[in-house]
Amino acid sequence: MSANVTVLDTRTLNRATLARQLLLDRADLPALDAVAHLCGLQAQEPQEPFVGLWSRLRAFEPGTLCDLLVQRRVVRTHLMRRTVHLVTADDALAWRTRHDAMLRQRVLGVYRRELDGVDLGELAAAGRETMSDGEPRTMAELTRAVADRWPGVPARALGEMLIAGVVPMVQLPPRGLWRTKGGVRNLPLATWLGREPAPDPSATNSDAPNDASPDGSDPVGQAILRRYLAAYGPAATADLRAWSGLAGLPAAVAAARPELVSFRDERGRELLDLPDAPRPDPDTPAPVRFLPAFDNAILGYQERGRIIDDAHRGLSVAGERVVLVDGRVSATWTVEQDTVVAKPLRRFTGAERADVAEEGRAVAMFLSDKASERVRVDAS
């Protein structure tokens, strides 16, 4: 790496992240395009993506996202990091096979002992046979249907591997619809969408760095890399790995590198980026934004200092909803009955407190269908 590579300080990276994440200015994008641009939204808490899109889009209506789920244009599925993500149907089909090995390994990381001796190919075949009737099933129902073939293996281990590891599944509506409670009912991705996931030339039984496509280019990995940088860059390969769960996509990075630009952060890490992607002036004003639990604007990096202080890093994995003030995590927020409550993590100025209260009122109106605009900002 050249000694004269530009160093991007934390504030510059912060503003780049906000711009890519549609948090600097609300975007005039259709919800489907926003989900695609963001490479999906983490969604194990079913209602949280609605807040995530509302905070990013100028004219977001919850019913729009519900329609996309019912119309099968957006799906809920295990993907990046083996977490449930809300992704476009096209991305689920294009990316799933590239994530297969990682998903299996992550399930084994939890249940390796319990699944010792279980042939995962046979388990996948049994799961597909059971689901071939096109009937949605809960994990418990699917597990009961195959459990007699593996006596003594804990049902939870079999179920987690079936649902997240060996058979690409989607969680069907009403799960994930606005203000709708529904348990998880699963159906194979191919059945729900009427198309099989795309094959991946680089797919093998592991995600080791040398497991690239025959020509060494890892085309699917390159597509994921470029999409990631468009939504999260500039970023290090460690950040890409933290977001995706994949092993850094080294073949893809090597193949795409001639088309990318590089920087360094203040720690000396190399950051890659798309040449024409937005990198706003670090003094660009950043409005207050209320983020949902597990938002990938925070979780999408290994080094999260660009948006959250190390002292508060644990909030990002504990399911706390957070408030961005001047682009950084500065408060948590909850809803108490009909009131949005913000709890500062530092001392606010009078202007900051007023801005948080104003945006909090807007959040309250959104969550209550305009029935309440009550907000409380606790003492700093």
List the helices and strands and how they pair.
Blueprint: E1 7-8, H1 10-20, H2 31-37, E2 41-42, H3 48-54, H4 62-70, E3 74-78, E4 84-88, H5 89-111, H6 120-131, H7 139-146, H8 155-166, E5 169-171, E6 186-188, H9 189-193, H10 219-232, H11 237-244, H12 250-256, E7 261-265, E8 270-273, E9 289-291, H13 296-299, E10 321-325, E11 328-336, E12 339-344, H14 350-367, E13 374-377
Helix pairs in contact: 5-8, 6-7, 6-8, 7-8, 10-12
Overall 3D shape? globular
Query: Uncertain segments of ≥5 residues (pLDDT<50)?
Result: 205-212
Give the C-alpha Rg: 21 Å
Helicity range = 25-40%
Biggest sheet statistics: 5 strands, mixed
Query: For the residues shown, what is the average pLDDT?
Result: 95
Number of strands: 13
Note the total helix count. 14
Estimated structural class: alpha+beta
Beta fraction: 5-15%
Describe this structure in words.
The chain has helices at residues 10-20, 31-37, 48-54, 62-70, 89-111, 120-131, 139-146, 155-166, 189-193, 219-232, 237-244, 250-256, 296-299, 350-367; strands at 7-8, 41-42, 74-78, 84-88, 169-171, 186-188, 261-265, 270-273, 289-291, 321-325, 328-336, 339-344, 374-377. The chain is α+β, with helices and mostly antiparallel strands and 380 residues long. It has a 5-stranded mixed β-sheet, covered by helices on one side. The longest helix is centred in the N-terminal third of the chain and has 23 residues, at 89-111. It is globular, with a radius of gyration of 21 Å. Mean pLDDT is 95; it is low at 205-212.
